[in-house]
Amino acid sequence: MSTSAMRNQTLSSSRNLTKKTVPSTRSSSSTAKKSSESGWEYWTRVYSDDTQSSHDIRISDILCSNTLTRAKLLFLNVPNHRSIHKTAIMNLVKKEMIQDDISIQDVIFTPPGKWFLNFYRPEDALKVLKYFNGFSFRGHILAVRFCYPDGTFGDENSLAELVKCSNNVKGKRFEQKEIVQNTILPECWSVSEYEELKKFETELMKILKSHSHLPFQNVIQSMRTLFSFNIQSSTSSILISDALSQWPIGFIRIFNQNVKVISNVMCLSTSPFYTQRIHDSALEGRFSIHRNSWEPFIPNEIRSDAQLIQYFYSFLCHFGPQNIDIDIPIRILTQSLRGTWPKSTSILAFKLINISSSFVIINRVLYLSNDRIHHEKVIYNIATYQDDCSDDYSLELSCDSDDKKVMIDDFDNL
Predict the structure, then answer these.
(1) DSSP labels for 200-267?
(2) Which conformational region is residue 294 in: left (phi greater than 0), alpha (psi within -120 to 50 degrees), or beta?
(3) For 176-215, what is each residue's pLDDT tens digit?
(4) Chosen CATH of 191-284 out of 1.20.58, 1.10.10, 1.25.40, 1.10.3470
(5) What is the pTM of this model?
(6) Domain 61-167 belongs to what topology?
(7) Measured between alpha carbons, how far is residue 296 from residues 127, 244, 292, 304, 359 in Å?
(8) What pLDDT score was predicted for residue 1?
């Protein structure tokens, strides 16, 4: 056989082989495409976003999407070391909890000393919180907190409630569930006041349920009218009227876990509007928090003694001396603090004078020891309290130093 004939035979065989394999390739492509389409159909249901085509999104993007986050944990007091990165944190959790099937959606490392862990399932977050709260890691005792979308903290019971709701209503997102947290601390209020506050919260949420969001001032005005003591009704309340008049934004913060104030609007924590604002704020890198001009920061952000002193100084400059048993603003402030701060106004006030000489308690009233206006009120307080006595008393108040601590509770001992 000539060389030319051999080449023609080889070329013919090659063409026949190609023709035979083409149908097989098309079949595989068709199967893969069908499988891919069914996969996208599943993830589209999970993502529940009709505004985007499945061809415009990658599965890796969907897995990292905040819409899949059902619970978030904040790790505090973590070691700040360069060797600690996202993969190392995920490996730590999986290694320590190897018996549990823990699915972590994402890890955000925020130096110094903070980790944010997002979870697909609230029950996974609850397991991790129970295990790692108090866990010793590289010489650091970790503190783990359940974190709400606005950055405030919830306790283990709040997360357990979320797990319970998640199990009862499978397939629905966290922001679509109607989870009502018990936000009122009974230590700050009498029994009758506690009932009035619960009634206020019920009426407030009833107004907000029918709207995605409402202007803050409009809601406040409606609640003032509803609970006005000047108009006798079943909802009339001196406590609510005074609280809304003296410090409306502080009063609304009591119900922070169920009601959110963003910029100048108010909405429920389960509102899609709130979820969207959180998402937009994350993209913009900032979050608009509604606070008074005199506030250095909101009470939710107080984490240290120094911050507590700074906030209380501004607080007393604005509201003036506070009776720790009666005055509403200081009780609202105590109620608004998160974490391990004392839940009793009296205990919190005495803690304050123990950590700073800038404050003094006289006849159950908290004053600034280095403020001239407060000095005058102290003198009036003493004069009124000792009105029937002829003895003279002197009280040294520091104006510019922290060398002396002053506390007078019982004038019978002077």
Answers:
(1) HHHHHHHHHHTSS-EEHHHHHHHHHHHT-SSS-STT--HHHHHHHHH-HHHHHHTTTTTEEEETTEEE
(2) alpha
(3) 444 445 567 778 889 999 999 999 999 999 999 888 889 9
(4) 1.10.10
(5) 0.55
(6) Alpha-Beta Plaits (3.30.70)
(7) 36, 21, 9, 14, 18
(8) 53
